Protein backbone atom coordinates (compact mmCIF):
# COMPACT_ATOMS: atom_id res chain seq x y z
CA UNK A 1 0.00 0.00 0.00
CA UNK A 2 1.37 3.44 -0.86
CA UNK A 3 2.09 5.86 1.96
CA UNK A 4 -0.82 7.66 3.51
CA UNK A 5 0.81 11.08 3.76
CA UNK A 6 3.21 13.41 1.97
CA UNK A 7 5.01 15.90 4.26
CA UNK A 8 6.94 19.13 3.72
CA UNK A 9 6.26 22.26 1.66
CA UNK A 10 8.01 21.24 -1.58
CA UNK A 11 6.67 17.69 -1.50
CA UNK A 12 3.08 18.81 -0.86
CA UNK A 13 3.33 21.49 -3.59
CA UNK A 14 4.55 18.80 -6.02
CA UNK A 15 1.81 16.32 -5.11
CA UNK A 16 -0.81 19.06 -5.69
CA UNK A 17 0.64 19.64 -9.19
CA UNK A 18 0.85 15.92 -9.98
CA UNK A 19 -2.91 15.30 -9.97
CA UNK A 20 -2.50 12.49 -7.43
CA UNK A 21 -5.62 11.67 -5.36
CA UNK A 22 -5.47 13.70 -2.13
CA UNK A 23 -7.94 13.27 0.72
CA UNK A 24 -7.15 16.53 2.56
CA UNK A 25 -4.37 18.99 3.42
CA UNK A 26 -3.40 19.53 7.07
CA UNK A 27 -1.72 22.80 8.02
CA UNK A 28 -0.24 23.66 11.43
CA UNK A 29 -2.19 26.41 13.22
CA UNK A 30 -0.61 29.81 12.74
CA UNK A 31 1.49 28.75 9.73
CA UNK A 32 1.06 31.41 7.07
CA UNK A 33 4.42 31.57 5.24
CA UNK A 34 4.30 32.39 1.55
CA UNK A 35 4.82 28.76 0.53
CA UNK A 36 2.05 27.52 2.82
CA UNK A 37 -0.31 30.27 1.64
CA UNK A 38 0.31 29.14 -1.95
CA UNK A 39 -0.35 25.50 -1.01
CA UNK A 40 -3.64 26.46 0.70
CA UNK A 41 -4.73 28.48 -2.34
CA UNK A 42 -3.82 25.66 -4.73
CA UNK A 43 -5.63 23.08 -2.58
CA UNK A 44 -8.79 25.20 -2.32
CA UNK A 45 -8.81 25.81 -6.08
CA UNK A 46 -8.85 22.00 -6.50
CA UNK A 47 -11.82 21.75 -4.13
CA UNK A 48 -9.77 19.99 -1.44
CA UNK A 49 -10.49 20.17 2.27
CA UNK A 50 -7.84 22.21 4.14
CA UNK A 51 -7.77 21.70 7.91
CA UNK A 52 -5.83 23.62 10.56
CA UNK A 53 -4.44 21.36 13.28
CA UNK A 54 -2.07 21.62 16.23
CA UNK A 55 1.60 21.09 15.23
CA UNK A 56 1.69 18.08 17.62
CA UNK A 57 -0.93 16.37 15.43
CA UNK A 58 1.38 16.67 12.41
CA UNK A 59 4.29 15.32 14.48
CA UNK A 60 2.14 12.34 15.42
CA UNK A 61 1.11 11.60 11.81
CA UNK A 62 4.59 11.94 10.32
CA UNK A 63 6.45 10.10 13.12
CA UNK A 64 9.71 11.99 12.76
CA UNK A 65 9.50 12.97 9.09
CA UNK A 66 10.16 16.72 8.73
CA UNK A 67 6.79 18.27 7.81
CA UNK A 68 7.48 22.07 7.88
CA UNK A 69 3.90 22.67 9.03
CA UNK A 70 2.07 21.00 6.14
CA UNK A 71 0.98 17.43 5.34
CA UNK A 72 -1.13 16.02 2.49
CA UNK A 73 -3.16 12.93 3.33
CA UNK A 74 -3.17 10.88 0.14
CA UNK A 75 -5.35 8.03 -1.10
CA UNK A 76 -3.87 4.54 -1.62
CA UNK A 77 -5.44 4.40 -5.11
CA UNK A 78 -6.58 7.06 -7.57
CA UNK A 79 -10.15 8.34 -7.42
CA UNK A 80 -12.31 7.88 -10.50
CA UNK A 81 -14.82 10.24 -12.12
CA UNK A 82 -18.56 9.51 -12.27
CA UNK A 83 -18.22 9.40 -16.08
CA UNK A 84 -15.68 6.54 -15.73
CA UNK A 85 -18.18 4.60 -13.60
CA UNK A 86 -21.05 5.08 -16.07
CA UNK A 87 -18.67 4.21 -18.93
CA UNK A 88 -17.75 0.97 -17.18
CA UNK A 89 -21.42 -0.10 -17.11
CA UNK A 90 -21.79 0.78 -20.78
CA UNK A 91 -18.68 -1.20 -21.76
CA UNK A 92 -20.07 -4.25 -19.96
CA UNK A 93 -23.47 -3.80 -21.66
CA UNK A 94 -25.10 -3.52 -18.22
CA UNK A 95 -27.54 -1.14 -16.55
CA UNK A 96 -25.56 1.21 -14.27
CA UNK A 97 -25.34 -0.04 -10.67
CA UNK A 98 -23.89 2.59 -8.30
CA UNK A 99 -23.61 2.93 -4.52
CA UNK A 100 -23.61 6.33 -2.78
CA UNK A 101 -22.51 6.51 0.86
CA UNK A 102 -24.15 9.45 2.64
CA UNK A 103 -21.90 10.66 5.50
CA UNK A 104 -20.53 7.21 6.32
CA UNK A 105 -17.48 8.01 8.44
CA UNK A 106 -16.30 4.56 9.60
CA UNK A 107 -13.46 3.38 7.31
CA UNK A 108 -14.15 -0.28 8.23
CA UNK A 109 -17.72 0.04 6.94
CA UNK A 110 -16.57 1.73 3.75
CA UNK A 111 -14.01 -1.05 3.18
CA UNK A 112 -16.61 -3.77 3.82
CA UNK A 113 -19.04 -2.09 1.38
CA UNK A 114 -16.33 -1.94 -1.30
CA UNK A 115 -15.77 -5.66 -0.81
CA UNK A 116 -19.50 -6.45 -1.25
CA UNK A 117 -19.68 -4.01 -4.17
CA UNK A 118 -16.99 -6.00 -5.96
CA UNK A 119 -18.83 -9.26 -5.26
CA UNK A 120 -22.21 -8.02 -6.52
CA UNK A 121 -21.09 -6.28 -9.73
CA UNK A 122 -21.40 -2.66 -8.60
CA UNK A 123 -19.83 -0.37 -11.23
CA UNK A 124 -18.63 2.23 -8.74
CA UNK A 125 -19.03 3.86 -5.32
CA UNK A 126 -19.58 7.59 -4.66
CA UNK A 127 -18.12 9.21 -1.53
CA UNK A 128 -18.96 12.82 -0.57
CA UNK A 129 -15.85 14.96 0.04
CA UNK A 130 -17.18 16.14 3.40
CA UNK A 131 -18.20 14.15 6.47
CA UNK A 132 -17.37 10.82 4.85
CA UNK A 133 -14.44 8.47 5.26
CA UNK A 134 -12.10 8.98 2.30
CA UNK A 135 -10.02 6.16 0.85
CA UNK A 136 -7.35 5.38 3.42
CA UNK A 137 -5.05 2.44 4.12
CA UNK A 138 -7.68 1.18 6.64
CA UNK A 139 -10.41 1.24 3.97
CA UNK A 140 -8.11 -0.52 1.52
CA UNK A 141 -7.15 -3.20 4.04
CA UNK A 142 -10.78 -3.87 5.10
CA UNK A 143 -11.81 -4.08 1.45
CA UNK A 144 -9.50 -7.12 1.05
CA UNK A 145 -8.19 -5.77 -2.27
CA UNK A 146 -11.58 -4.66 -3.67
CA UNK A 147 -10.35 -1.03 -3.64
CA UNK A 148 -8.20 -2.00 -6.66
CA UNK A 149 -11.24 -3.18 -8.66
CA UNK A 150 -14.19 -0.97 -7.65
CA UNK A 151 -13.84 2.62 -8.90
CA UNK A 152 -14.50 5.23 -6.21
CA UNK A 153 -15.45 8.81 -7.13
CA UNK A 154 -15.51 11.75 -4.73
CA UNK A 155 -18.49 14.06 -5.08
CA UNK A 156 -19.32 17.54 -3.82
CA UNK A 157 -23.02 18.21 -3.34
CA UNK A 158 -25.00 14.96 -2.91
CA UNK A 159 -28.38 16.38 -4.05
CA UNK A 160 -26.87 17.88 -7.21
CA UNK A 161 -25.05 14.64 -8.01
CA UNK A 162 -28.27 12.63 -7.61
CA UNK A 163 -30.19 15.13 -9.77
CA UNK A 164 -27.59 14.70 -12.55
CA UNK A 165 -27.72 10.90 -12.34
CA UNK A 166 -31.53 10.96 -12.45
CA UNK A 167 -31.36 13.08 -15.60
CA UNK A 168 -29.21 10.33 -17.09
CA UNK A 169 -31.96 7.81 -16.40
CA UNK A 170 -30.87 6.30 -13.10
CA UNK A 171 -33.32 5.55 -10.30
CA UNK A 172 -32.32 6.48 -6.76
CA UNK A 173 -33.27 4.05 -3.98
CA UNK A 174 -32.50 4.91 -0.36
CA UNK A 175 -32.44 2.58 2.64
CA UNK A 176 -34.18 3.92 5.72
CA UNK A 177 -36.17 2.58 8.65
CA UNK A 178 -39.28 4.46 7.56
CA UNK A 179 -39.12 3.19 3.97
CA UNK A 180 -42.32 2.70 1.95
CA UNK A 181 -41.82 -1.03 1.43
CA UNK A 182 -39.48 -3.88 2.28
CA UNK A 183 -36.36 -3.86 0.12
CA UNK A 184 -37.22 -7.19 -1.55
CA UNK A 185 -40.65 -5.87 -2.62
CA UNK A 186 -39.19 -3.02 -4.70
CA UNK A 187 -38.20 -3.34 -8.36
CA UNK A 188 -34.41 -2.92 -8.34
CA UNK A 189 -33.71 -4.17 -11.87
CA UNK A 190 -33.23 -0.85 -13.72
CA UNK A 191 -30.27 1.55 -13.78
CA UNK A 192 -29.89 2.30 -10.08
CA UNK A 193 -28.11 4.28 -7.37
CA UNK A 194 -28.34 2.64 -3.93
CA UNK A 195 -27.98 5.25 -1.15
CA UNK A 196 -26.87 4.16 2.32
CA UNK A 197 -26.66 6.59 5.25
CA UNK A 198 -24.60 6.51 8.42
CA UNK A 199 -25.50 4.21 11.31
CA UNK A 200 -26.38 6.99 13.73
CA UNK A 201 -28.13 9.48 11.48
CA UNK A 202 -29.27 7.52 8.44
CA UNK A 203 -29.64 9.51 5.23
CA UNK A 204 -29.65 13.29 5.36
CA UNK A 205 -33.02 15.00 4.76
CA UNK A 206 -32.00 16.54 1.41
CA UNK A 207 -30.59 13.20 0.24
CA UNK A 208 -33.83 11.45 1.17
CA UNK A 209 -35.82 14.03 -0.81
CA UNK A 210 -33.85 13.11 -3.95
CA UNK A 211 -34.67 9.39 -3.63
CA UNK A 212 -37.25 8.04 -6.11
CA UNK A 213 -38.23 5.55 -3.44
CA UNK A 214 -37.08 4.55 0.03
CA UNK A 215 -37.00 0.93 1.20
CA UNK A 216 -36.70 -0.56 4.66
CA UNK A 217 -35.09 -3.71 5.97
CA UNK A 218 -37.56 -5.53 8.25
CA UNK A 219 -36.33 -5.79 11.84
CA UNK A 220 -37.91 -8.32 14.24
CA UNK A 221 -35.61 -7.86 17.22
CA UNK A 222 -35.09 -5.22 19.88
CA UNK A 223 -32.30 -3.38 18.04
CA UNK A 224 -33.66 -0.87 15.55
CA UNK A 225 -30.89 -0.68 12.96
CA UNK A 226 -28.27 -2.82 11.26
CA UNK A 227 -24.61 -2.02 10.78
CA UNK A 228 -24.41 0.13 7.61
CA UNK A 229 -22.23 -2.35 5.71
CA UNK A 230 -24.62 -5.24 6.53
CA UNK A 231 -27.66 -3.20 5.43
CA UNK A 232 -25.86 -2.22 2.23
CA UNK A 233 -24.89 -5.85 1.54
CA UNK A 234 -28.53 -6.98 1.75
CA UNK A 235 -29.59 -4.36 -0.78
CA UNK A 236 -26.72 -5.04 -3.18
CA UNK A 237 -27.38 -8.78 -3.20
CA UNK A 238 -31.08 -8.11 -3.79
CA UNK A 239 -30.21 -5.98 -6.83
CA UNK A 240 -27.96 -8.81 -8.09
CA UNK A 241 -30.67 -11.46 -7.45
CA UNK A 242 -33.36 -9.48 -9.27
CA UNK A 243 -31.08 -8.72 -12.23
CA UNK A 244 -30.09 -12.37 -12.60
CA UNK A 245 -33.75 -13.47 -12.50
CA UNK A 246 -34.62 -10.89 -15.15
CA UNK A 247 -31.79 -12.06 -17.42
CA UNK A 248 -32.89 -15.70 -17.34
From TrEMBL:
What Gene Ontology terms describe what this protein does at the molecular function level? RNA binding; RNA methyltransferase activity
Coiled-coil residues? none
One biological process term in Gene Ontology? methylation
- Tell me which domain of life the UniProt entry assigns to the organism this sequence originates from: Bacteria
Q: A Pfam family for this UniProt protein?
A: SpoU_methylase
CDD domains with a match to the protein in the record = SpoU-like_RlmB
> Which keywords describe this protein according to UniProt?
Methyltransferase, Transferase
Q: Does the keyword Cytoplasm apply?
A: no
**Keyword Transferase assigned:** yes
Q: Name one GO cellular component term.
A: cytosol
Task: Give every RNA 2-O ribose methyltransferase substrate binding domain span.
Answer: 5-80
Family, similarity comment: Belongs to the class IV-like SAM-binding methyltransferase superfamily. RNA methyltransferase TrmH family.
Task: Give the PANTHER family listed for this entry.
Answer: 23S RRNA (GUANOSINE-2'-O-)-METHYLTRANSFERASE RLMB (PTHR46429)
> How is this protein named in the record?
23S rRNA (Guanosine2251-2'-O)-methyltransferase
Q: Which organism is it from?
A: Anaerospora hongkongensis
Amino acid sequence: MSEEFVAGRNSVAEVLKSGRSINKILVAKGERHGAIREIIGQARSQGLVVQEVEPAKLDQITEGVRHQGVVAMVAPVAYAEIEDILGRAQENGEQPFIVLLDELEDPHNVGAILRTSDATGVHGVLLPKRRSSPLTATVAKTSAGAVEYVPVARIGNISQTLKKLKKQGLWVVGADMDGDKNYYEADLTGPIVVVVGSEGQGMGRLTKEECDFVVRIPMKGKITSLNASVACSLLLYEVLRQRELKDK
